[in-house]
Amino acid sequence: MAKRNSEPRDKRSPTETVENYSNEFAADLDIPPLPDSLPNRLEEAIAARVEAFLFRLKEAQQNRYVRALEIRLIRDAHAAVLTAYELRLRNAGVWYARFREAVEALGYERTDIGFTKVSDE
Questions:
Q1: What pLDDT is attached to residue 1?
Q2: How crowded is residue 100: how many other Cβ atoms within 10 Å of its Cβ?
Q3: Phi, psi dihedrals of residue 23, rounded to the nearest 5°
């Protein structure tokens, strides 16, 4: 069943599973922060790229690519979604939730770092 537009969309964070345990460690790394705002052209380009990858992941559920092509698509989509999340784009949490749903529908499960194909056994 499709959600109505008035219902809240699923959101996920790619870092929340370990963030609370590692905040102090991350602060000690002293990594320079990103700027608070992005040029509109860059934000729009990233948004278009993420939406295109999410569309292709949904399409892959029907087309069933060979494993190497499927992995490439997932890897590139994951990078795009993580870029949006790191740059704090408005829909990043929603995009990550959609990415996770699409990847799981393709038969992959989340691992500590990335995803792996679930055994067919």
A1: 45
A2: 18
A3: -60, -45
Q: Which residue has the tokens 């700027």?
A: 35
Closest CA to 97 of 54, 35, 68: 54
Q: What is the pLDDT of residues 2-48, one digit of tens each?
A: 455 666 677 666 666 666 677 787 788 787 777 778 899 999 999 99
Tokens of 59: 């399409």
Which regions of 1-121 does DSSP assign to beta strands (E)?
108-110, 115-117
Q: What is the DSSP string of 34-55?
A: PPS---HHHHHHHHHHHHHHHH
Distance CA 31, CA 35 (A): 13
Report how far residue 26's alpha carbon sits from residue 21's, in angstroms, rounded to the nearest whole number: 10
Helix (H) or strand (E) holding 15: none
Mean pLDDT of all residues belonging to the chain: 84
